[in-house]
Amino acid sequence: MRPKRNWSVLLGAAFLMATSAVGPGFLTQTTVFTQTLTASFGFVILVSIIIDIGVQLNVWRIIAVSEKRAQDIANTVLPGLGHFVAVLIVLGGLAFNIGNVGGAGLGLNVLFGISPEVGAIFAAVVAMGVFLVREAGKVMDRFAQVMGLLMILLIVFVAATSAPPVAEAAVRTFLPDEIDIIAIITLVGGTVGGYITFAGGHRLLDAGIKGEKALPEVATSAVSGITVASVIRVFLFLAALGVISKGLVLDPANPPASVFQLAAGNLGYKLFGIVMLSAAITSVIGSAYTSVSFIKSFHKGIAANENWVIIAFIAISTAIFFFVGRPVKLLVLAGALNGLILPVTLGTMLVAAYNRRVVGSYRHPLWLTIFGVIVVVVMAWMGGFTLVKQFPELF
């Protein structure tokens, strides 16, 4: 039997990945797609969950077996590729962290009426505080677990209050009236795109859970992470579906807040503030930690002062939000690049799975390879399509 402390790390990595995925964008996407597809959105969620699990199992297994971080694996496959991937991850993480900080400020604005800018600073200070303690890794694990469970409980309550048509949702999950491919790709990119893919895998590596013998634990943690994110997604979907099925109209300026308020009145609106704050601040922590993990192997000074570099990352994100606001064009471009990061990184991992310099004598399951190749092709096409459509001036 594994030591009990391993279970704490496994759950911590799972919740770090899940809460990194569940940010302000996650809440809005889920609500908007439910409004568009109604009960058939259940099918989109089901397909995205299957894809997410395949992606995470591929990536986390290779990280564990190689005992290297993703950027070092990439540099082994092709010199310089790891640096290129690290730049994409850090820039994408920084751009999205601006939105995460803003989301945390919005949550505090809903709860206490303070301005989003002041709220963002307060939330950033709390996030920085996690990395000021000696056992920062353990505190981060516990913080992610507590915030994740809090979000689940509150969203389940709101879903029950909205009284959704559960039977119809169950039927349309397997027999949808409409299939939206773009919605599937968006959900996949939002759950396992960019830095999120590696949040838990790098955390397990830092905690010493690595090597081929650790693969059962790695798989458990990976699937648990997707499960946590999916539970939040499903109940938020049901909450929104319950409101929409009654013919109520969501506020286009803030769809998720509308769901909570229409389902449970002013209490629901305050609960939205808590959920938004929890989702945003855990995403701030996950983004900062994972982004820095992509550059710390390039210089000894970064590794030696990792926590301070993470704190600086959060501070820069907050300063940009405070002085510039949410640079919409930058966030859209970062989203499009995020769609390209997954096929590049997953494709690199699949090549590494058959490189003896990376994995030694390890044999990667064929079904995971086939699954991964399909995801790489589809996500590469959609990422390119999004870039061309949103930024024709670049081409």
Automatic annotation (TrEMBL):
Entries under InterPro entries matching the protein: NRAMP_fam (IPR001046)
Topology in membrane: Multi-pass membrane protein
Pfam families for the chain: Nramp
Keyword set, alphabetical order: Membrane, Transmembrane, Transmembrane helix
Source species, domain of life: Bacteria
Protein localization: Membrane
Gene Ontology biological process terms from the UniProt entry: iron ion transmembrane transport
Sequence intervals crossing the membrane: 37-55, 76-98, 110-131, 143-161, 181-201, 222-244, 271-295, 307-324, 330-354, 366-388
Cellular component, GO, one term: plasma membrane
A molecular function GO annotation: cadmium ion transmembrane transporter activity
Name of the featured protein: Divalent metal cation transporter
Organism, as annotated: Pontibacter diazotrophicus
UniProt lineage: Bacteria, Pseudomonadati, Bacteroidota, Cytophagia, Cytophagales
